[in-house]
């Protein structure tokens, strides 16, 4: 996997600060102070004025489908309809990679080889790319360009930097995060997974032992259980009066 930053909005902190001042943020605060305030308190619409464009190479088609779940973004992927895929490279999941001499790895690699050979034979027989491509596996490496605003990136990182994210997606998120921190540390040093960013983990009982924050961050369920009944009474009374 290779991730490069193609383009980023320059002077974004000042732009965000100006937008925030229109909404009533104090004129005496510096751009950095304003960005820290709106990031920490999740007043984040002004952050949409900063954009990042990434070039992402050697990721699986399966991962590219997951990226599409982040809809507030612009997506462009390598086309299997117009590009030849003879001799394609593919993604090997970490668990299989650790079992290099295992029967499971052999089965996986054999499946990739078979798909590769079948695709090549179909093309040699004159089958069009757009029809031959249906034998290609989800592990097929693809090339991807995505553009996201900072608000969408924060949401992306909160979900995909969690240890429960798919390993390939988690690896991609870490690479993208490093690039973002280098460009706009005032925004992104306050961001990581949902637990870190919110100060409470919504993964609750499914939070795995591998979570580095498991011993220091409370779960959402534990916090909410303390006040939910009383808070519900307040809500019900409000509904009765309305």
Question: Which helices and strands occur, and which strands form pairs?
Answer:
Blueprint (H helix, E strand, L loop, with lengths): L1 E7 L3 H11 L8 H10 L10 E10 H7 L5 E5 L16 H5 L4 H22 L4 H4 L8 E9 H11 L6 H17 L1 H4 L5 H5 L21 H22 L1
Antiparallel strand pairs: 1-2, 2-4, 3-4
Distance between the termini: 55 Å
Largest sheet: 4 strands, antiparallel
Mean pLDDT: 94
Q: In the residues, how many domains can be counted?
A: 3
Could you characterize what this model shows?
- The protein is built from eleven helices and four strands, in the order E-H-H-E-H-E-H-H-H-E-H-H-H-H-H.
- The protein has a four-stranded antiparallel sheet.
- Helix 1 packs across helix 2.
- It has three domains: 133 residues, Gyrase A, domain 2; 50 residues, no CATH class; 43 residues, no CATH class.
- 22% of the residues are buried.
- It is globular and about 70 Å long.
- It is α+β, with helices and mostly antiparallel strands.
Kindly list the characteristics that best describe this protein:
242 residues; Gyrase A, domain 2; 3 domains
Characterize this entry briefly.
With 242 residues, the chain is α+β, with helices and mostly antiparallel strands.
């Amino acid at each position: 996997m290779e991730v490069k930053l193609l383009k980023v909005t320059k002077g974004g902190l000042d732009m965000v600060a100006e937008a925030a001042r229109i909404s009533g943020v104090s004129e005496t605060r510096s751009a950095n102070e304003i960005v820290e305030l709106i990031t920490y308190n999740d007043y984040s619409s002004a952050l949409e004025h900063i954009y990042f464009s990434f070039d992402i190479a050697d990721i699986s088609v399966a991962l590219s489908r997951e990226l599409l779940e982040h809809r507030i973004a612009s997506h462009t992927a390598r086309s299997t309809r117009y590009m030849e895929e003879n001799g394609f490279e593919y993604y090997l999941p970490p668990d299989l990679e650790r079992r290099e001499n295992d029967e499971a790895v052999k089965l996986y690699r054999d499946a990739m080889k078979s798909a590769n050979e079948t695709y090549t034979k179909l093309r040699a027989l004159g089958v069009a790319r757009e029809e031959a491509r249906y034998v290609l596996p989800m592990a097929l490496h693809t090339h991807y360009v995505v553009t996201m605003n900072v608000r969408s990136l924060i949401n992306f990182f909160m979900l995909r930097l969690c240890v429960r994210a798919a390993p390939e997606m988690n690896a991609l998120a870490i690479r993208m995060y490093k690039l973002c921190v280098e460009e706009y540390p005032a925004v992104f040093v306050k961001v990581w997974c949902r637990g870190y960013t919110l100060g409470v983990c919504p993964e609750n009982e499914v939070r795995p032992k591998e979570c580095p924050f498991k011993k220091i961050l409370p779960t959402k369920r534990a916090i909410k259980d303390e006040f939910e009944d009383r808070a519900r009474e307040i809500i019900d009374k409000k509904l009765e009066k309305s």
